[in-house]
Amino acid sequence: MKRLLSSLALTALIPCLVQAQQFPNKPVTAVVQMAPGGPTDLIVRAIQAQMGAALGEPLVVENRSGASGLIGLKYVLSAQPNGYTVGIATGTSHGVAVNFYKNLPYDPLKDFKSVGGIALAPGVVLTRKEIAPDCKFETLVAKLKAKPDEYKFGSPGAGTLGHMSAEAFMSEVGVKMMHVPYRGLAPAISDLYGGVIDVVFDNISSSQAHLKSGKICAIAIQAPERLEAFPDIPTYQELGYPNLNRPAWYGMIVRSDTPDDVVKRLNTALNQALETDAVKKTFQGLGISAIPGIRMSCRAACASA
Q: Is 274 in contact with 292 (CB distance < 8 Å)?
């Protein structure tokens, strides 16, 4: 009887062992905690096909926006720790949110494990050309100083990096604007066009189409030097505000109890995707830089945000 029970127990374990050895054997879902069309969404979709090819299974992008990204991250934590659900770490989720929310529904140091770095992306300050017809930093600042709290800025949500970038900008430059939070940058940009808000602190990766529209202009960028693709956008450094030169970072994460061999497989596939010509070309066009090979700990990520 004991032999029979042992055999049955071993038989029951075989599917689990095979599944672990063959990871992945079904699509992997990447949960994006922001709305479609925003920088986080664009960056993940830029690696989607190539990472899926490296895994041998599709990488499916699923947007679960709301509550400044908390909804998507909570969903990742509710999933099984088997590697089939991955999340995206940002300067918001693993830096700003830690200090902004008193009752954060997750611990970025204990609840998540890093898969690897994805990209560094410079932020830009966007406004309508009717506000700054010459697209000059000084023009926008002069108007903001002339009418404190009359102009409005939009962000992808309270406590997000876009929100904190605006607060840092106002503190450093000495201006005041009203905050209008959204469920992502895409709807904020839509209202920038419509005149509902006047300024958005966006990411260069999701700003390009808007800059080409002729209605929106960027008056400053978070980069050590001007980008080759956008030579007319001055850096905060040259404008005299070096403290504002902090590009956004993006990484891939899983639940902290995900097996190390699964995390290693995901890390290998992510790095392979980032090294492909297709992703390099896409990132170059978006004005962002890949950070392959980096498995930044969640503690280090928090410290750098």
A: yes
Give the pLDDT score at 257: 97
Please tell me the distance from the alpha carbon of residue 86 to that of residue 72, in angstroms, as a whole number. 10
| Mean pLDDT of each 10-residue bin along the chain, 305 residues long | 49 48 93 88 96 98 88 95 96 74 83 94 94 97 97 90 92 97 88 97 85 91 86 94 89 96 97 96 88 63 50
Distances from the Cα of 222 to the Cα of 20, 73, 249, angstroms: 42, 26, 12
User: What domains are there in the chain, each with its CATH number?
Assistant: 27-120+247-304 (3.40.190.150), 123-244 (3.40.190.10)
